[in-house]
Amino acid sequence: MGINTIIVVGVGQMGSGIAQVAAMAGYKVYLNDVDEELISKGVNLINKNLQKNAEKGKIDDSQKQSTLDLIFSAPNLAECKDCDMAIEAIVEDITIKSELFSKLDALLPPDAILASNTSSLPITEIASYTKAPERVVGMHFMNPVPVMQLVEVISGQLTDDEVLSVTQDVARTMGKTPVAVDDYPGFVSNRVLMPMINEAVFCVYEGVASPEGVDQVMKLGMNHPMGPLALADLIGLDTCLSIMEVLYEGFSDPKYRPCPLLRRYVNAGLLGKKAGRGFYNYT
């Protein structure tokens, strides 16, 4: 089961980062999204990141160009019917993901690997919408993808051992460190991280400290490089809320109850850095 060509579906910040590290590793990469403008934005972001790396001396101009030469726009999924692997990086919505995986299952070769970059949704459920659940696997990259080393490789209930092994090899080829994780809500990363962020929001909600105070305690007292509320703003408060809801529903445990203040911020459109304002003001 050799991997030479990869289609990345969803070319936002995560998808473009995945495409960049895949192309830098020598894979031929196709980019697909709901319209060509989003693909173009993704390519521009990759080009911008590569240019920064070139200016810092991390890569030379020939490496930059060889990476770009391996990236192709594919607004029509049918253009990618011969790809060896698909990596999905679309919105965290099980209905939309299930529709996509059903299409990929029918389109790609019968031995192609179907990977999801979901941060919390169950791989087993995503796989259930395909006719070959054994070839569906989780491949959860961290943000920003070109910088962060970890990739959680999640095995669904029916994921084939060879699929898991090949996916780990692909992550290593991309210069990442794969960690095998079983298919439980939030996996490891968000099962540990999101309750901490949620508790930090509760501290603000209950008047224990200001956002600045909470973050200072965690940075200076726990040696965290970034406070949990600044990190929440970076991730997106809507994403944090969505993951907490997955944990709450998945475990039926009140310790995962999303803080009402987190929900209120999301309802108000205060989604963090991408919206210009969350627990901090970025305007």
H-E string: EHEHHEEHEHEEHEHHHHH
Structural shape: globular
Q: CATH topology of the largest domain, which one?
A: Rossmann fold
Q: Low-confidence segments, ≥5 residues, pLDDT <50?
A: none
Q: How many beta-strand segments?
A: 8
Rounded mean pLDDT score? 96
Number of helices: 11
Name of the CATH architecture of the largest domain = 3-Layer(aba) Sandwich
First CA to last CA: what distance?
A: 49 Å
| Strands ordered across the widest β-sheet | 3-2-1-4-5-6-7-8
Please state roughly what percent of the residues sit in beta strands, choosing from under 5%, 5-15%, 15-25%, 25-35%, 35-45% or over 45%.
5-15%
Helix content: 40-55%
Structural class, by secondary structure, is: alpha/beta
Largest sheet: 8 strands, mixed
CATH class of the largest domain: Alpha Beta
* Total domains: 2
Q: C-alpha Rg, in Å? A: 19 Å
CATH superfamily of the largest domain: NAD(P)-binding Rossmann-like Domain
